[in-house]
Fold this sequence. Notes:
The chain has helices at residues 3-6, 47-59, 84-98, 111-121, 142-161, 173-187, 214-217, 237-240, 242-282; strands spanning 11-17, 21-28, 37-40, 64-67, 103-108, 126-132, 201-206, 226-231. By secondary structure, the chain is α/β, with parallel strands linked by helices. β5, α4 (111-121) and β6 (126-132) form a beta-alpha-beta unit.
Amino acid sequence: MNVQDLILPGTRKTIVLPGRGALPIREVAEFHQGTPVLLLHGWGATADLNFATTYRPLAKRWRLIAPDLRGHGAGIVSKDKFSLEVCADDAAALVRSLGLGPAICLGYSMGGPVAQLMARRHPDVVAGLVLCATAPKFVSNSWERLLLMRFSNLAFTARNAQDNILPLRYIAPKLLRVLEATGSLAKFDSTSWLGYLDVPTSIVLTTADHLVPPSDQRLLTAIPKSKVFEIDAGHEACVTQSSKLVQAIEDSIDSIERRIRRSTSSKTSQCTTTAKAKSASKSPHKGKTAVA
């Protein structure tokens, strides 16, 4: 790896979302071809930590927008408790603010639920989903869920009490916000509504993943318009197997764009056929006149 590879491409900027806050993003747009791609990072990470190895190759074909999610990195700071739903609303507001039109939303790990919620809550801004190393739920039993939610509540209480309790002033507030996210992840379960998502979806399934089991990742195939792209990699594929991940993401986005083009072509053809049928029905009958 040379020095150039260590320099992140694109521009770091802050977008002010009215009523929400200041959202830092990285925009990488070497070429403005194809559908814009919104990159949503995983738990405890930032956009740059999660996607540093993918920016340069993906930006050769697509315009990339990578925000730091609320409570992570330099993301929006709020006194409210962390919520995946609010993160999804932030991301949708970002797409609208930048005038991107519908974007392909790529969610890695925790970014997967954010992308799923965007498709459910804001379908007008989502052209397609790429779900990497993620699942429709992250907790397999009620005891795990209860433990993580209590842990999350403790972090939330500690963050709001830090100004009054001296030792807590020295605990990084950002760390406490990240810990709060465990509760929202513990509660998340989209299995009851995945079947209603009407958007082309590609699932990048990490078959050697010990954090998010492949069996849980496969539950995402309940999305009607989904296709699976397997890679032999673990949950940290974005760091340890970046070339495999990039290839899978490229294949995934290509697949989504093909499906979008086919759908658009089909709708155009149907509209043309309908218009011709209506025109024919309005034309006077030109049959031969019978001779007595």
